[in-house]
Write a structure and sequence with these properties.
Layout: E1 2-4, E2 38-41, H1 48-56, H2 62-75, E3 93-96, H3 99-106, E4 128-135, H4 136-140, H5 143-155, E5 157-164, H6 166-174, E6 180-183, H7 186-194, E7 198-213, H8 227-237, E8 241-243, H9 249-261, E9 265-269, E10 277-281, E11 286-288, H10 293-303, E12 306-310, H11 311-318, E13 325-328, E14 335-343, H12 353-363, H13 366-374, H14 377-380, E15 386-387, H15 390-395
Parallel strand pairs: 1-5, 4-5, 4-6, 8-11, 8-12
Antiparallel strand pairs: 2-3, 6-14, 7-12, 7-13, 7-14, 7-15, 9-10
């Protein structure tokens, strides 16, 4: 596997609409009451899966907590109403049922054995060279280093990874300079397919964005769950904010969040796409660096500034001693889904179409989704990405 970094890059994480449909939970049919073995108040670093692992030793038992909480909410509104298992807010009261009740809700034993991942064995299909254009978060988080060797062994592949912003990855696909893209900007993905540049878009996984910043929190936004209001306070206090400014999926999300802040915005030149502009707030406190996520976090750390990051890359960088904290999280607008798309061989006959289809089938398979579900759990007590393929969801 070859990792090809863009020249400007200076250094080598359960949170929709055009994006994915949220998983809406209703009270279990026919269940009239539920007992709470514990009542838990959501803290700043809580996830349903994290609570489930702590209580039951089973990270995938989180739907039992969500459904039990919704049953209790119908009885008393002091309990939270959970519409999306990937979005819980600080201060919510959750109902944690007993292990026996949790098993009944899930209709399966707790701590279900993991999907067995057989040793990587060649399939006989020889994919050969495959160019994957992807966002920097899949690379900077370390995910690709963990999962791609399996694909290369099974399919006789030599994957060249071009780790850039989503906008640049899509451009590579439009130009036929990549065989397959793995990105995170759903509206742009849909436009890519609608314009006939890509085929066979599939859901892969998701995590969430977070605003990170210094522990001192000069804007006074720590714990806020309205990301638009938090950004407005950053602007009003003139606190330094570092933007990727690179037409990436993260940068695209950031622009939509600034628009939600209600602050006046102006057009500015895009640092990595000369023919594009982006919107930004006015003031010297806002700095656009035209870098990938890892490099942007380095700049924010050096200046003890705020920035928007995907959770996976941020948590991965904490292992390298980055001195920033998660300041704002939990807003549903921070949801961050990833999709994989093959470049259309009818438009670009020279692309490795068979290899791209094999990669999509492999990436969305139950076995690879299992690998994704475990990535980060050993270091952070939670996965950095949540599997979301059709095969994975059908098996749950």
């Amino acid at each position: 596997m070859k990792i090809l970094k863009p020249l400007l890059v200076i250094t080598a994480l359960f949170l929709l609409a055009v994006m994915l449909q949220p998983l809406v939970l209703a009270a279990p049919v026919g269940q009239e009451a539920v007992a709470c073995e514990q009542e838990v108040i959501v803290q700043g670093d809580d996830w349903l899966s994290k609570i489930a692992e702590k209580v039951y030793g089973d990270v995938f038992a989180y739907p039992a907590i969500a459904e039990a909480t919704n049953v209790k909410n119908a009885e008393h509104n002091s309990f939270a109403r959970i519409e999306n298992v990937d979005v819980i807010e600080i201060g919510w009261k959750l109902c944690v049922p007993s292990p026996a009740d949790a098993q009944a809700i899930l209709n399966r034993p707790l701590a279900e054995p993991e999907v067995a991942m057989s040793p990587a064995e060649p399939t006989g299909q020889q994919v050969g060279r495959l160019v994957l254009a992807t966002t920097t978060s899949t690379d900077d988080s370390g995910l690709l280093d963990v999962i791609l060797p399996d694909f290369e062994t099974r399919y006789g592949a030599d994957v060249e990874v071009i780790a850039v912003g989503t906008g640049q990855a899509i451009t590579l696909g439009e130009n036929g300079d990549a065989d397959v893209i793995l990105v995170h900007a759903r509206s742009r993905e849909d436009a890519f397919v609608e314009a006939n540049y890509g085929v066979n878009r599939q859901d892969v996984m998701y995590n969430d964005f977070v605003i990170v910043g210094p522990a001192a929190d000069p804007a006074g936004i720590k714990g806020m769950t309205d990301v638009g209001a938090a950004l407005a306070k950053i602007a009003e206090t003139g606190s330094t904010f570092i933007s990727r400014g690179d037409d990436s999926g993260t940068h695209t999300k950031e622009q939509s969040l600034w628009q939600a802040s209600g602050m006046p915005l102006v057009e500015a030149a895009n640092l990595t796409s000369a023919d594009k502009t982006f919107v930004k707030p006015e003031g010297d406190w806002y700095q656009s660096v035209g870098q990938g996520m890892g490099a942007t976090l380095t700049v924010a750390d050096e200046q003890q500034a705020y920035t928007l990051s995907d959770r996976a890359t941020f948590l991965a960088r904490t292992l390298e001693g980055i001195d920033l904290e998660i300041i704002v999280e939990g807003d549903s607008r921070l949801f961050n889904p990833y999709g994989v798309i093959a470049v259309n061989p009818e438009l670009h006959p020279n692309v490795n179409a068979a290899g791209a289809e094999a990669f999509i089938e492999w990436l969305t398979s139950l076995e690879t989704q299992q690998m994704i579900s475990q990535f980060g759990v050993d270091k952070f007590g939670q996965p950095l990405f949540v599997p979301d393929s059709e095969a994975w969801n059908a098996a749950q």
